[in-house]
Amino acid sequence: MRDTVYFLVFDGYADWQAALALCEIRRPGDWRVQVVGFSLAPVVSMGGLTVQPELSLAQLDLARAALLILPGGHLWTRGEGLAAVAAARRVHAAGAPVAGIDGGVLALARAGLLDHCRHTGNHAGHIDAHVPDYRGAEQYDASVLAVSDGGTLTASELGSVEFAREVIRTLDLYNASDREHWFRLYKHALPPPWLAGVAAVAA
Fold first, then answer.
1. Which of 11, 99, 123, 191 could covalently link to 195 via disulfide, CB atoms 3.0 to 4.6 Å apart?
2. How many C-beta neighbours within 10 Å does residue 150 have?
3. Is the C-alpha dihedral spanning 140, 144, 145, 148 positive or negative?
4. What backbone phi and psi angles, to 5 degrees, belong to 79?
């Protein structure tokens, strides 16, 4: 039963980038979010939050994995985090999607998961500069802030709302209409028609 979303944390991870996505994952109550670390040692996020991993990357339950999320952080541009690269490969090979935002995209590229699918990132040339073996430049789409394809979700550091929308779509959390209303609300502060009507009556 694929009911668990794994979220990787490490010292200096960008804590805000997947926050909206994680909240929406937990909202229906059908999904479990587990915090994963390179080890079980507490880590401190980029924003100064101390987080205790529940399990290590080596302890991932591939049979329960519904999604693995890799947030941004400076370790990716330093070429570190190879255990996460291997974990992304394992999760993807087991049939579950993997997601990277900001520098987390580099981990997916190092895993070879972006060579044959449409993807995006921080800017054109960013992946090439940090991943010598990357072969997916022709599949890179600079026109979007987030995109899903081939079992991968990728997003720019500027696309946290778009990233959350792709996660919502991948896990089929809401119907297509509700997903669009959600995106307009969080991206453009445009409430859905029914909520606008309630506000008008209250006024």
1. 191
2. 14
3. negative
4. 80, 15
- Pairing state between β 43-44 and 32-37: unpaired
Contact, 97 vs 112, CB < 8 A?
Answer: no
Which residue, 134, 100, 135, is CA-closest to 120?
A: 100
Closest C-alpha to 75, from 125, 145, 14 = 14
The residue type at 66: A
Beta-carbon count within 10 A of 78 CB: 10
| Contact assessment for residue 145 and residue 120, using Cβ atoms and an 8 Å cutoff | yes
Per-residue pLDDT tens digits for 95-137: 999 999 999 999 999 999 999 999 999 999 999 999 999 999 9
Determine contact, residues 28/173, Cβ cutoff 8 Å: yes
Distance CA 168, CA 7 (A): 15
Rounded to whole angstroms, the Cα distance separating 196 from 190 reads: 9
CA-to-CA distance for 120 and 198, rounded, in angstroms? Answer: 38
Helix (H) or strand (E) holding 153: strand 152-155
| pLDDT tens per residue, range 50-90 | 999 999 999 999 999 999 999 999 999 999 999 999 999 99
**Under 8 Å between Cβ of 73 and 17:** no
Distances (CA, A) of 164 to 10, 40, 56, 115, 116: 20, 27, 24, 23, 23
CB 51 within 8 A of CB 45: yes
Task: Compute how many other C-beta atoms are within 10 angstroms of the C-beta atom of residue 54.
Answer: 15
